[in-house]
Design goal:
heterotrimer, A mainly alpha, B alpha+beta, C mainly alpha, A: mainly alpha, 13 helices, B: 4-stranded mixed sheet, about 20% strand
Chain lengths: ~300, ~525, ~280
């Protein structure tokens, strides 16, 4: 229990740090928020009034406190371009990204675990080397280029998949694009973990006891190798978001990543900062969830508790 | 614990799962359109771009409107009278127009719409069009009672102008002057842009941000038999390539033609009956800041005009344009531009530069919108100018900050921009862009020529149409000789339609209208 | 990305990686002599219609008539420059944070590691595009932006390394002789952390190149018309159906460069593992 509480407490600290960093970003940008709010033809008088209204003449910490208050209440400001509430715009696009992310995760976990296990079992063989080299190259591919190549070959040339846009079938190509890179990463990790695990005493003991290979590899080795993978998952959520930004742009997927790119393209500062803040908060929360999972399923910890 | 997680995961996936018929039109005759960007706004006071206007036209009504030929006709108004001194306009509204919330449209709604545009709190880009109304010039710093708009009764509204404005009717045809229900604006506030309520032929049924907009027919529209469509589906986040492929597979009714496909489409027989083209009333140009060296010297500006190869530019855009000789597009009605233009002549450019004191050229920065097409053109221009010794650095920024920068004094020496006619009159180009009183708004080149100002002012006061045109032609000739712009081209718009689409025409002045369009059953 | 140990094999790939990196560097440095044409000028008459590979143009031309091969070579210069400069910033910040946190421990460690956690919570590309959008576009911005978002992995790994190193005999001896913490960190800990730093440097560089390509693809990289691989890919999208080579070649070069750095990095890691096992 204390572990859980401690974890949650640290997450709150990090969340505050995240808001602070985002706030500082807003602070250091060269453009003047009062002028942006007032428009290019405003006179100095109007600017001064707006500056006071927005509290821009207050000390930094006071402004931050007010900013934090607004964030907690869900007020991330309004988009410069469409005047829509930023949080509303983000939440409108979130389901699309969630769908893409979940599909990607399932695909990459399946492929990654499968291939990783395969290579660890068949160490030193040509399959092993091929898979490891292949995964290295996959990791070296720019994700937007991979997406474009898949789009061109599989959607345009072969007409197997639809060409971008949003829908149940439309998620396949973007998810595969993202999943290939992720799977490559998981394969390598799992391979490393499994090798370590397979060399452990208890595996040899299980062999010696005459347990069937499937039981040895499956029940004991795999489970113990997957556990550290779970923590990497949370960490990698940030990496996944980065990939999502590019993939959504290539495939015109109407999610959070595309929203961020559009905001950047339009220099829509509240929206840019809002998406950055929101994504960081998602990452922190994903990490917390993953840590809880880890605490729940790690047999060593469970053993200690019981 | 694990089961819990799995259940949550499953629910998330199901919640996020798009419905199977996402992106497909609802049942009935829906016209299917697509574009890359979402519609910025549907608030008629705020929209000032083709995407917003296209759909605001569908949702709102104005006193007067344009027919297919670009002539003014009545919409909400049944008839109107203009006083002898041409400063008072009295409109009689039709009695059968209703807003989609049920209530009849009244004169007060017209007044409300325009006063709202003039209100600085709305930050409407259309405010400047209505400053000529009596009592409107006080609206600089706070909401004002515009005395020049009088509601005589529920169906009569009168406008009093401070001076003669031959373009006033055109201004009333813009979406800025649409009838807007005050109670809905009060109800929605800033969100009126996403929940518009108007009296037009269509109603906004659904707006899934980033994905699509669905409009349905307004069965209570005051013109019988209009619209003929059941509705319009406008997809978002569909780039030109994707739109083309959807069009080819029959999923779109109207599409742009991407540059990669264009040569083929122009050649093949089967596409010809489906193509629609129109020369827009638009001029693309490179503006030179006449107050910043070296562009303060007219010889330098003329040299730049001779240095840029405009035919080459046209090839970059698949020849979808006409080389611009001067400011006003050639399809401006009743107007014949007298200017012969600047031919491609790099030698002459070099001589002029040497005369002006730049024998080895100079360096400057070209500001461009960060748009792929604009950047491509900029790079072509950069090469041309490098050949005569002018070294250009290209600076790409987003549209909003770009406009702001161009209007800041002493900041931008050279920029790439275009101007599209708001109404079919040459003064909409010449006066707005070249009169010195518009420096700081649309006269982005800070061009100042007292003779041209005098001619433009005289044209503004002229009662006789022929004399007016003559004055404008002379003003254009003088300004073109001063070359505050590098004149590039007038774009020609091409669209291709599905074979089931009927009565779809492109409009020279406005985004396409869909009132009369219909679809043959397949 | 934190590298995982346990792969003593694979150190031979270091040579392959080094060769690839060397080739990349060579191409970048000798671009002015190798490139057959000026990368910024139209050298073909084919405005609006990209030419396929062949004729005088080994890899074809783009829609503005510019030679693709020349642009790729000059693009390599930019990639190399960004890679070196940004990685230098990344490694500098990361090493500084990692060494200080690992050596001093206590509240300094906690503070620095939590700060690292905060930065890690921001998806790197998202933070990078936000920063790049808010500032003037240009090379300097790219270096700084990439450097600022990538240092966390280096910091964590270096800190782990330092935690182990600070208990070594020579460090304890030097401390007992009265050396200041600063001096200890710089003269004793840092040099011995160098192998790890090199590995992280190589792996960081591969990340840097990818991040730069991503920024360029989104239009936030070096301003046009300077050729940059990521930008060449995004420009190719309009014409990909009639000119797929415009999309293929820049991608291949990126993959080549990044794979080279990755092989180098993972190979070096394998060397270290093998060294560590024998120690």
């Amino acid at each position: 229990m204390t572990a859980v509480l401690r974890r949650v407490a640290w997450s709150i600290v990090i969340l505050i740090g995240v808001t602070w960093l985002t706030f500082m970003l807003a602070f250091i940008i060269p453009s003047d928020p009062a002028r942006t709010a007032a428009g290019p033809k405003a006179d100095p008088q109007t600017l001064a009034t707006i500056r006071q209204e927005l509290g821009l003449d207050q000390p930094v910490l006071v402004q931050y406190w007010r900013y934090l208050g607004r964030v907690v209440r869900g007020d991330f400001g309004r988009s410069y371009l469409t005047r829509q509430r930023v949080l509303e715009a983000i939440l409108e696009r979130l389901p699309a990204t969630a769908y893409l992310a979940l599909t990607t995760f399932v695909l990459s976990a399946l492929v990654g675990v499968g291939l990783g296990a395969l290579t660890a079992i068949r160490q030193g063989s040509r399959t092993d080397v091929a898979v490891l080299l292949g995964s290295l190259v996959l990791l070296s591919l720019p994700v937007f280029w991979l997406g474009m190549v898949l789009l061109y070959c599989l959607a345009y040339r072969l007409r197997w998949f639809p060409l971008g846009g949003f829908g149940v079938a439309h998620v396949v190509l973007p998810a595969c694009t993202l999943a290939l890179g992720q799977a490559a990463y998981y394969t390598r990790l799992l391979h490393a973990n499994l090798r370590t695990v397979l060399e452990q005493e208890y595996i040899r003991a299980a062999h010696a006891k005459g347990l069937p290979p499937r039981s040895v590899y499956g029940k004991h080795a795999l489970r113990n190798a997957v556990i550290p993978l779970v923590t990497i998952l949370g960490l990698d959520f940030a990496g996944l978001m980065s990939g999502v930004v590019l993939t959504e742009t290539v495939f015109n997927w109407p999610g959070l990543g595309r929203l961020a790119v559009e905001a950047v393209f339009n220099q829509d500062i509240p929206l840019i900062l809002g998406t950055v803040l929101f994504s960081a908060m998602l990452v922190v929360m994903a990490n917390v969830v993953v840590d809880m999972l880890y605490l729940a399923i790690d047999p060593r910890i469970r053993y200690h508790r019981s | 614990m694990r089961a819990c997680g799995a259940a949550i995961g499953l629910m998330l996936v199901l919640a996020a799962c798009p419905s199977a018929d996402e992106g497909r039109a609802p049942a009935g005759d829906y016209l299917r359109l697509a574009d890359q960007d979402d519609v910025p706004t549907l608030d008629p006071a705020r929209g000032y771009d083709t995407a917003s206007w296209e759909f605001e036209d569908m949702l709102f009504s104005t006193l007067v409107d344009y027919d297919e030929a670009g002539q003014l006709i009545a919409e909400l108004a049944t008839e109107w009278e203009v006083s002898a001194d041409q400063r008072t306009y009295t409109f009689h509204l039709r009695a059968d127009a209703r807003f989609t919330n049920g209530r009849p449209v009244e004169a007060a709604d017209i007044r409300f719409g325009i006063v709202r545009v003039l209100d600085p709190a709305t930050r409407s880009p259309g405010a400047e069009f209505f400053r000529g109304i009596a009592g409107a010039d006080g609206c600089q710093s706070s909401a004002c009672a515009v005395s020049g708009i009088e509601v005589l009764d529920a169906h009569t509204v009168r406008f009093r102008l401070r001076e003669i404005d031959p373009l006033f009717l055109h201004k009333l045809a813009m979406p800025f002057a649409a009838a807007v229900p005050p109670e809905e604006v009060a109800r929605w506030g800033e969100d009126f842009a996403r929940h518009p309520v108007g009296s037009g032929p269509f109603i906004l049924k659904e707006w899934a941000a980033g994905r699509h907009l669905i409009f349905v027919r307004n069965s209570n529209y005051f013109v019988a038999g209009v619209p003929r469509l059941a509705g319009v589906l406008r997809l978002v986040a569909v780039n030109d390539d994707l739109a083309w492929l959807k069009y080819e597979s029959g999923e779109l009714d109207v599409s742009n033609i991407p540059p990669a496909e264009f040569p083929r489409v122009r050649r093949e027989e089967r596409y010809q009956p489906l193509l629609r083209r129109i020369t827009t009333m638009r001029t693309s140009y490179l503006g030179m800041n006449c107050e910043m060296a070296p562009f303060s010297d007219v010889r330098v500006r003329r040299a730049m005009n001779f240095a840029v190869n405009k035919e080459k530019l046209l090839r970059l855009i698949n020849n979808r344009g006409v080389v611009a000789k001067a400011f006003v597009p050639p399809n401006m009605p009743d107007y014949y531009s007298p200017v012969s233009g600047y031919a491609f002549d790099p030698d002459r450019a070099r001589r002029l530069l040497a005369d002006a004191g730049y024998p080895s050229g100079f360096s400057t920065t070209l500001w461009v919108r960060s748009d792929e097409g604009a950047l491509r053109l900029a790079q072509s221009v950069q090469q041309d100018l490098a050949d005569v010794g002018v070294r250009i650095r290209i600076k790409a920024i987003a549209w909003g900050p770009f406009l702001e920068a161009v209007r800041t004094a002493d900041l931008v020496p050279f920029f790439s921009l275009g101007w599209e006619a708001d109404f079919p009159d040459p003064s909409n180009f010449l006066e707005v862009l070249l009169h010195s009183k518009h420096i700081g708004t649309n006269n982005n080149t800070n061009y100042r020529n007292p003779e041209v100002d005098r001619l433009l002012d005289a044209a503004g006061r002229a009662g006789d149409a022929t004399a007016r045109i003559q004055l404008l032609e002379e003003a254009e000739a003088r300004a073109a000789a001063d070359a505050p712009w590098v004149f590039l081209y007038h774009p020609v718009t091409y669209r291709i339609v599905h074979s089931r689409v009927r009565d779809f025409e492109l409009h020279p002045l406005r985004p396409p209208r869909y009132n009369r369009t219909w679809l043959t059953p397949q | 990305m934190t590298p995982r140990p346990g792969q003593g094999r694979g150190r031979h790939l270091t040579w392959v990686g080094a060769a690839m990196v060397g080739l990349f560097g060579l191409a970048a440095l000798s671009a002015p002599w190798l490139a057959p044409y000026d990368p910024l000028r139209a050298v073909a008459e084919s405005i609006g219609e990209p030419l396929p590979p062949g004729g005088g143009f080994l890899l074809g031309t783009d829609e503005l008539g510019r030679d693709v091969l020349s642009r790729l070579l000059y693009g390599a210069r930019i990639s190399l420059l960004v890679a070196l400069a940004a990685t230098t910033i990344t490694v500098s910040i990361g090493v500084a944070v990692g060494v200080v946190a690992g050596y001093l421990g206590g509240w300094v460690d906690t503070l620095l590691m939590r700060a690292t956690d905060v930065v890690l919570s921001f998806p790197a590309l998202l933070l990078a595009i936000a920063l790049a959008a808010l500032f003037e576009p240009g090379l300097m911005t790219i270096f700084v932006v990439i450097g600022l978002v990538s240092w966390t992995g280096v910091a964590r790994t270096v800190r782990g390394e330092v935690l182990g190193l600070r208990e070594r005999d020579y460090v304890l001896a030097a401390r007992s002789l009265g050396a200041t913490p600063g001096r200890l960190m710089i003269s004793h800990v840092l040099p011995n952390a160098l192998p790890t730093i090199l590995v992280m440097g190589a792996l960081s560089t591969s990340n840097t190149v990818l991040l730069d390509a991503g920024l360029s693809y989104l239009g936030l990289g070096v301003p046009v018309p300077t050729p940059s691989w990521g930008r060449m890919i995004s420009d190719s999208q309009t014409y990909y159906r009639i000119a797929p080579w415009l999309m293929v070649f820049p991608g291949v070069t990126i993959v080549f460069a990044v794979t080279g750095f990755n092989l180098l990095g993972y190979g070096l890691l394998a060397w270290r593992e093998r060294g560590a096992r024998h120690a």
